[in-house]
Sequence to fold (348 residues):
Amino acid sequence: MIGCDASLVLSRRELIASAAAALAISSPPAHATVAPTMLISHPAFAGHDPGPLSAERPARMRAIDQALSDPRFAALVRREAPLRDDAEEAILRAHDRQHLERVRAAALDKAHLPFSFDGDTVVAAGTWEAAMRAVSAGLMGVDAVMDSSSGIKAVFCQVRPPGHHAEAQRTMGFCLFSNVAISGLYARVRHGAERIAVVDFDVHHGNGTQRIFWSDRSLFYGSTHEMPLFPGTGALNETGVGNIFNAPLKAGDGGIAFRSAMKERILPALDAFRPDLILISAGFDAHDGDPLAHLRLFEADFAWVTAELMSLAARHCRGRIVSMLEGGYELDALGRSTAAHVATLMGA
Fold:
């Protein structure tokens, strides 16, 4: 092929193989009995509008809504994210009070909205409600999977703003509160889960989750991500107290490298950790079509890793998985990737 180098040929081979895999695992057999999967979202998430220059925009919710309106998702248990009275208490397990109050003050100061904490992280008129519902969605998801009487094994939280860059005292990278870390710490306090795992396949390293989990051996963080890339963290030698497992990928890596990183570093460590609950930072910006990075994943790669995590959840924690949306900025790719992820969760 004229003008086609070997890396592009490999990418197309990966795509063909991945497409076959997706067809194999995206739907359970017709005779299978599966536990229902819960989808938690709310119209307020589209009300958080950082402005026309932000990639993290309300249209992301509409793209996912459209993708999940397909009849194959009719069996989802759909719930609206609440505004929970205990959301602030949960936030304070991961963030200090000064951080909470600083975000609240900025988001509710109508005279000075929109307000930018940095070049990426903006609060506007609908941001506070969206942020509190995002935290509450994670708590609701944890309650659902930890309650054996609910019948729910897997939850996908379709939320904005994302959370994995937010540190204990710092907003960053579109993120105000560390939604997934907050949910994990809540599971420990409210439900007695002793070993909490977060697996993050967003293309950007989840520096916030890593820092919050850093010194606690009962908290696991595993991440694949492009490096070097924002936020600049996530090297192999960042290991916490033996509970942090980073698997950086380089620009141009595709499904083969991604799956190898998962199989050789993240998944064996997670298996050895024996989690009581698995949380997923589900970022879809590692997709080949995403404008903010340079990895070459496709829908079937996200379906594959979801199935692998489901297998480990079945082995160690009765199938309990709560997945929370992080990145993904090319709208068509976001919709398709989310659909592949949720369809696989529905096969639990």
Observations:
- The two ends are 42 Å apart (CA to CA).
- Residues 1-33 have pLDDT under 50 and may be disordered.
- The chain has one domain: 34-345.
- The beta strands are 37-41, 77-80, 115-116, 122-123, 154-157, 196-200, 219-226, 244-249, 277-282, 321-325.
